[in-house]
Design goal:
Length: 685
C-alpha cells in the first residue's frame, strides 16, 4: 500500500515539475513588462499597433543625495556627463550617467533658467528668462560671458529679450528661442560681445479664405481690433552634428516639427504629428525624436516618416516609463532615450529592443546609400514583423537600386509606397514594351486586317448576315432598347429628357438596370483598380455598405428633389425624375471601364490622364443632371439653381433629423435594457 502511494505521489510530482518547466520555458513578451503600447503608421495613414520599440530601463530620481526641484532642461554628453538645469533651485547639477553627483554651479547668478546647451568641451550656455540673459560657464562652472538683448534695430526696440531655449553650433553661433518673439529663432554670433545676425526659421502665418475676405471688408479701425495673424513662436529646438536645426511648435500641425538647413528652409513635413510637442532631439541614425508634454514619444526618420509612438501619461500609479509633465528629451551615444519630467523631478530612461536596433542599423545604412548592406537588417525586421511598412518601403527602395524591379514592386505594394511602385512599374513596363511591342503591333494590325477581310466577304457573300440578325433581334427587345437609350441621352440631353417625359422612352426597370451596372462598376473600381489609384486597404472589402450607401444617396436625392419640385410648381413625376437622374450618370457607365483599365497601366506621372478623365466624366454628369431638372420640370435656369440649392438643404435637414432620431432611439434602447438589470439588482439586494 505504501509503495503504491509513493508511486502515485512520484507521478504527481513529475507532472507538476513538467508543467512548471513548460511554463518557465514559455517566451515572456515585452508588452506585459511595459505600461504602454507602441504604435506606428502604415502606408494608408492608419495608426496600428506594432512590436514594443523601447522598454523602460531605469529612472534617475536623485543626483547623489541631492534632490531636483522643477528641472526644465538637461544636456547629455558623449563622455558620460549629464548637465541638469535645476530651475527650482536656480542652479546647474552635473552628474555621471549612474546619477553620482559631480558638482553644482550657477548659484547666486541664475534667476529662472529654462534652457541649457553644453558643448563637447563642457562650455555651458544657459538661457535665463527672468535675468533676460544668456550665461556662459566654463568647464569649471565659472561664469565667463553674459549676453543680453542684442543692440540692433533689426531685433526690434520694443521687443524684450526673454530667452527660453538655446543651442549652439560648432562656430559658437547661438540659436535662441525667446518668449513671445514671433519673428523666429534669434541668431547671435559671439563676435564683438554678441552680434545679432537676424531671425532664423520663422514660422509661417495661416489665414483662411474667409478671414482674408473679412479683413478686406472691414474698416481700418475694426481691422486693428482683430487678433493679429502673427506666426507662432517655437517651443523648443535641437541641433545635430551637421548643424541642422530641429524645432517644435505647438498647434502648427504638419509644421509642428521642422528640420531646418543653414538657410532656414524646412526639409520635412511629417504626416503624423503631435499637437502639444514639448521638446525635440536628433538621434544617432539620421532620425529625430519628439516628446509631447504628457509623455508620448515620437520617432521619425530623416524624411519625416513616423517610425514609432510610445510612452504616455502617468495615471497616478507612478509606473516607470510614464510621465506627468515632460520638459526635455535627449538620446545617448548608446541609443538610450532620456526624458526629463519636471513634475516628478526625475529622468526616465528607455532602451531599444532588438527589433528597433535592427531597424536603426537599416535606417543608418540606407540613409548613407549603402543599400546592399541595409538589406540584411531589413530582412531581420521583416522576419519579426512582415507588415512593418517602413521596412517594406526601405526594402523596396533597396531592391530598386539593385534593379530588382519585380521585388521592389512587391515590397512597395506592401508599404503603399506609391513613388517606388511607380518607378518600378515604369521599368517593368518599359522592358515589356521593348520585348513585345513589335508582336503587339503585328497582332493589332492582323486583327484590323482580319476585320476588313470579314467586311469584304460580308458584302460579297453575306457571311455575317446571321450574327447581324441575331444581335439586331436582341437590340430590338424593349428593355435592351431602353437601356441603350442612354447613348442617345448623353449626346442629346434635351431631346432625351423630352423622350423620357412624353414618349416613355425609358422605364423604371431600365433605370434599375443602369443603377445596378453603376453600382457594379463602382465596387469593381473601388476594390480592384490600379494600385496607384486605389484608396482602400488591400484585402479590405465592405461591399454591402457601399451598395447601401449608394441606394440611400439615390433615395435621398430623388426624394428630396421630387419634394422640392412638387412644392415649387415642377411638372416632373417621381418616375420621370428618378429615370432622368439615373440616365444622367450614363457617362459613368461609359467611361469608367476605360479609366479602370487605364489605372492598371499608368505610372505616377501619367495619373493626370485618369484624373482628367474623372473630372471630365463628372462634369458631364453634373451638366446632364442640371439639364434633367430643368427639362423635366420646365424650369428656367434661375429656377433650376434654386431647386438644386433647396434639394441640398433638404438633404441636410433629413440627415440631421435621422441623426437625432438615431440618438434618441439609442437612448430608448439603452433605457429598456437597463430596466431588467435594475430589477435584478433590487431583487438581489
Amino acid at each position: 500500500m505504501k509503495k503504491k502511494l509513493f508511486g502515485s505521489r512520484t507521478v504527481a510530482a513529475v507532472i507538476l515539475l513538467t508543467l512548471c518547466a513548460v511554463l518557465l520555458l514559455q517566451p515572456v513578451g515585452t508588452e506585459a513588462d511595459t505600461p504602454y503600447k507602441t504604435y506606428t503608421v502604415d502606408g494608408y495613414g492608419s495608426t496600428i499597433k506594432t512590436q514594443t520599440a523601447y522598454l523602460p530601463y531605469s529612472t534617475i530620481t536623485k543626483i547623489g543625495e541631492e534632490n531636483l526641484k522643477q528641472p526644465t532642461d538637461f544636456a547629455l554628453l558623449d563622455d558620460g556627463f549629464i548637465y541638469i538645469l535645476d530651475t527650482g533651485n536656480k542652479r546647474v547639477v552635473v552628474s555621471t550617467m549612474d546619477a553620482q553627483l559631480v558638482t553644482t554651479f550657477g548659484e547666486g547668478i541664475l534667476k529662472s533658467p529654462r534652457g541649457i546647451y553644453v558643448t563637447k568641451d563642457h562650455t555651458c550656455y544657459i538661457a535665463d528668462r527672468d535675468a533676460k540673459s544668456i550665461f556662459v560657464f566654463d568647464a569649471d562652472g565659472q561664469l565667463i560671458n553674459t549676453y543680453t538683448k542684442p543692440d540692433s534695430a533689426m531685433y526690434g526696440e520694443s521687443m524684450e529679450f526673454l530667452p527660453l531655449k538655446i543651442v549652439v553650433n560648432s562656430f559658437g553661433t547661438m540659436y535662441v528661442v525667446c518668449e513671445s518673439n514671433t519673428n523666429g529663432i534669434v541668431e547671435i554670433s559671439p563676435v564683438d560681445g554678441g552680434t545679432f545676425l537676424g531671425y532664423f526659421g520663422t514660422n509661417s502665418t495661416k489665414a483662411s479664405l474667409w478671414t482674408i475676405i473679412w479683413r478686406a471688408l472691414l474698416s481700418d479701425a475694426a481691422r486693428a481690433k482683430m487678433i493679429s495673424n502673427a506666426p507662432a513662436t517655437p517651443d523648443n529646438l535641437a541641433i545635430d552634428e551637421k548643424g541642422i536645426i530641429y524645432t517644435v511648435t505647438r498647434g502648427e500641425k504638419a509644421e509642428s516639427l521642422k528640420r531646418l538647413n543653414i538657410a532656414g528652409v524646412n526639409m520635412i513635413e511629417p504626416k503624423t504629428f503631435e499637437d502639444l510637442p514639448a521638446a525635440v532631439t536628433a538621434g544617432n541614425h539620421d532620425n529625430a525624436f519628439v516628446v509631447s508634454q504628457n509623455g508620448y514619444i515620437y520617432e521619425y526618420n530623416n524624411d519625416g516618416d513616423l517610425l514609432f509612438v510610445f510612452g504616455g501619461a502617468d495615471d497616478g500609479e507612478q509606473r516607470i516609463g510614464l510621465s506627468t509633465k515632460v520638459e526635455a528629451i535627449q538620446v545617448g551615444a548608446d541609443d538610450k532615450i532620456y526624458v526629463l519630467d519636471s513634475d516628478k523631478a526625475q529622468i526616465q530612461i528607455y532602451e531599444s529592443t532588438e527589433f528597433t536596433d535592427y531597424l536603426h542599423d537599416a535606417l543608418y545604412l540606407f540613409s548613407k546609400g549603402r543599400y546592399m548592406e541595409s538589406k540584411e537588417p531589413l530582412s531581420k525586421v521583416l522576419e519579426m514583423n512582415s507588415l512593418f511598412d517602413y521596412a517594406n518601403m526601405a526594402m523596396a527602395k533597396a531592391l530598386y537600386k539593385e534593379s530588382d524591379y519585380e521585388g521592389a514592386l512587391k515590397y512597395a505594394r506592401l508599404a503603399k509606397d506609391l513613388d517606388t511602385y511607380s518607378d518600378s512599374y515604369w521599368e517593368i513596363r518599359a522592358a515589356w514594351l521593348k520585348q513585345h511591342l513589335t508582336a503587339a503591333v503585328l497582332i493589332i494590325a492582323g486583327i484590323i486586317l482580319l476585320w476588313q477581310i470579314l467586311k469584304l466577304l460580308d458584302r460579297k457573300r453575306g457571311i455575317l448576315a446571321g450574327p447581324r440578325r441575331f444581335f439586331s433581334g436582341i437590340r430590338e427587345r424593349r428593355l435592351i432598347k431602353q437601356v441603350g437609350y442612354m447613348f442617345y441621352y448623353m449626346r442629346h440631353p434635351i431631346e432625351g429628357n423630352y423622350g423620357i417625359k412624353h414618349y416613355n422612352s425609358v422605364s423604371v426597370a431600365s433605370a434599375n438596370v443602369l443603377l445596378a451596372v453603376m453600382m457594379l462598376f463602382y465596387v469593381i473600381n473601388k476594390y480592384f483598380c490600379g494600385f496607384l489609384i486605389k484608396t482602400v486597404r488591400e484585402g479590405s472589402y465592405d461591399i454591402a455598405s457601399d451598395i447601401g450607401l449608394i441606394l440611400i444617396v439615390v433615395l435621398l436625392v430623388v426624394g428630396c428633389n421630387y419634394l422640392m419640385c412638387t412644392i415649387n410648381d415642377g411638372e416632373g413625376k417621381l418616375k420621370e425624375i428618378y429615370c432622368s437622374f439615373i440616365y444622367s450618370f450614363a457617362p459613368y457607365i461609359c467611361f469608367m471601364p476605360f479609366l479602370f483599365l487605364m489605372s492598371h497601366v499608368i505610372t505616377d506621372n501619367e495619373k493626370f490622364f485618369v484624373d482628367f478623365g474623372r473630372f471630365f466624366m463628372f462634369s458631364w454628369i453634373a451638366v446632364l443632371v442640371f439639364i434633367a431638372i430643368r427639362e423635366i420640370n420646365d424650369y428656367s435656369i434661375k429656377e433650376t439653381f434654386k431647386i438644386i440649392f433647396l434639394t441640398m438643404f433638404t438633404i441636410l435637414i433629413v440627415c440631421l433629423l435621422a441623426f437625432i432620431i438615431y440618438v434618441l432611439w439609442s437612448q430608448v434602447i439603452d433605457f429598456v435594457q437597463q430596466i431588467p438589470r435594475e430589477v435584478v439588482y433590487k431583487i438581489e439586494s
